[in-house]
Amino acid sequence: MTQDHIVIRGARQHNLKNFDLSLPKGRFIVITGVSGSGKSSLAFDTLFAEGRRRYVESLSTQAKLFLQNAAPADVDSIEGLSPAIALEQKGFPQAPRSTVGTLSEIHDHLRILFTHLGTTHCSKCEQTLQAFTVPQMAQTLFEDWEEGSRFLVLAPFQKVPFSSLSKTLKSFRKEGFARIRFDGRIHDLDPLPSLPRRTSYDLEILVDRLVLRQNDRQRLMEALELALKKSQGMVHVFHLAGPEKRFSETLQCPSCKAVFEQPTPSLFSFHHPRGACEACNGLGRIVAGSRRSSPSPVGPSSLRSHSPDSLGPEEDDEESLAHEAHTCSRCAGSRLNEAARSVRLKNLTIDQVLSKSMHELHGWVSSLQLTPQDQSICERPIREILDRITTAQKLGLDYLALDRATSTLSGGEVQRLRIAQQVSSSLSGVLYVLDEPSVGLHMRDHHRLLEILFRLRHEGNTVILVEHDRDTILGADHVVDLGPGAGELGGELLFSGPPSLLQKERQSLTGAYLSGHASLPGSARRECFLKGTLLIRGAGGHNLKNITARFPLGCITCVTGVSGSGKSTLVVQTLYKALAREIHGSLKEPCSFTAMEGHESIAKVLVVDQRPIGKTPRSSPATYSTVFKSIRELFSRLPESRARGYTSSRFSYNVKGGRCESCKGDGIQRVEMYFLPDVYVTCPYCGGKRYNSSTLSVVYKGKSIADVLNLTFMEAALFFKNIPSIQKNMSGFLEVGLGYLKLGQPATTLSGGESQRIKLATELSRSTPPGTLFILDEPTRGLHAADIEKLLHILQSLADRGHTIILIEHHLDVIRAADYVVDMGPEGGLEGGHIVAEGTPEQIAGNENSITGKYLRSLHA
Prior knowledge:
By secondary structure, the chain is an alpha+beta fold. The strands form nine sheets. It has a six-stranded mixed beta sheet, sandwiched between helices. The protein has a six-stranded antiparallel beta sheet with strand order 10-9-11-8-12-13, with helices on one face. A hairpin with an 8-residue loop joins strand 33 (820-825) and strand 34. 46% of the residues are buried.
């Protein structure tokens, strides 16, 4: 059984209810269920974590020092488990130096090509530089000059001071040299020549007079060697008929004498001190006027410890809104120093190659003309580059430029890049665990993704997806459905088997939506533009083609289109930033546009995206919202607190006073085990409650502040039902379906979809002014059909209250429920940036030019 199955016994990780499960190996498996039902706990925290842990445990002690291992999963046993690779939605690289090229590893292979095939050019003189060996020098002379040519071999000496001239000339004569050349004339050294007075002299020793003949090749090479030895690596060869050649053993410019280093892969990396621009430290831009504007020295340690969000392009915190990032003037945003940009391949520098889209790069690499020797050296990196590009093209990513920062990509784009990397590695017998790979994909591109994933399966791998997409579930070999609810109400195994049988499972919500017994509702369509129009003219950022876009106020607008068609550029990079600058005084520069109209009717603009609500376990849903503040104020007003003089800060685990100082309010302590995985133990002083005993002695209805943080929002709503201020702050969380989350749940354990809904819930709990514009980027990510139904209800409610909603979305049911649709395209990248169609969903469905309309028609059919 275990030879062809993965057998799990007693799965109890997080909210999993101690169930047993058998999964077939070498199959395409989908784990589904409502949000919070335990899908990620099973797929990532159990299967992947245990597979990775066992693999790391098999390595040597020395290797373990460099690999971070995890604690064992909470499970009785897992049999038949393979080494595992995970592609998650959370934890994507946000480091400012991470780009599409580095993430896909195409940049690494390009560095090899430029090292072996590139030629160095002097940045001042534009001359091609080459480091010659003596045989190469001789061969060049025989190739370029006719046999019988008469020439001089000269050893140059630069900048000889006047005070040392006589002594230098005497040393030349003593060594046996009879003549020198100065200012183009030959002078004998016996007697010493009388040279005009100068501050310094550029002299050349005449090493030999030669006639170019094959039988004198050995004499020529000896003369060249002697000249190189005397001049420390430079030799001048003067043809008596006029032309002159200059050779160097190093990459030294013969005109300006600038010396360049020999290319190595590290020279072309902006992660390495040798290649990074000195002004911006390889970031490509500098933030003016902030505490982060002074770049730290680039070095291996500084690059490892650099804050990954120090220059994040999409931060919306107060500091980033108050400062503007400028392109580095020294490297022009290329991130690389002058030495790296002095090397060219096919007349292009590596930063110019990295600025190409994958589609353009494929043609450029394919057109390289290589000698048989170069082909044998660079065949492998060229094949790796082309394989990765081909896979990325199949995943609909050929529009991405290699120098684009990964912090500007959607989660779906990053995950598909990682899929392209893994497919190119040609592994077999591996367990792949993926988190919603269909996220960010237009319906047209979805079948391409499935083909790639099926390819992984056909190569002998087991592919496990956490997924909600209907087509993906129906195309799976095996489906696992968890539920029935979220949090403590979930974690049960409802179904395990083929998808055809899941549709007949009565207790499964997933089965009900698959079979058609349950469906997402449409909307009572609002008449558009009755309340006004938000208009942006001449939008031309990135790939936008100087378009004018209209958005009806007080309605739900869905912006659609294939990946890379310009949706985020139009909505987030242009419209949102322009409104934030106009309404809130943000200094972030929007993409180019000529005019904006109708913004006077908007009181506030909000982007509700899927970026984490915090970067440390100290951040939680309670701290992100105002719930925790209200709870702390309640505890500070209790009689016991007043008697002791406790303020609300006493009940915060982030400041001294009330927290446990042994664990600094973390509740756990890390024990370093060196080559074994670090052990995290519950703090022995506070028992994991984060607070000291004095703070915990203050209770409300029998619960301390630590007990309250351990409540779910659903439990807390009942507990604080008589406290209107707290109830108000919690109502939004229940409305968006997050009642299963605990108030103090660490932000690092939340999915992107949960983070987005927390932001939405926080805004719903506030007194949002009338006329607020909500911008949501793919809000259905991570949501089950039942959760999407709740989301649609909230969005409809917001629109009914007079707010304006703009969605970037691919989900057909959400598009169908919108009041107005703006469809971008027709393709991605340079072939996108147009508005293909706009109107009601029915009008889009009837538009023959719209790819989105084609799929909307199939939905109506």
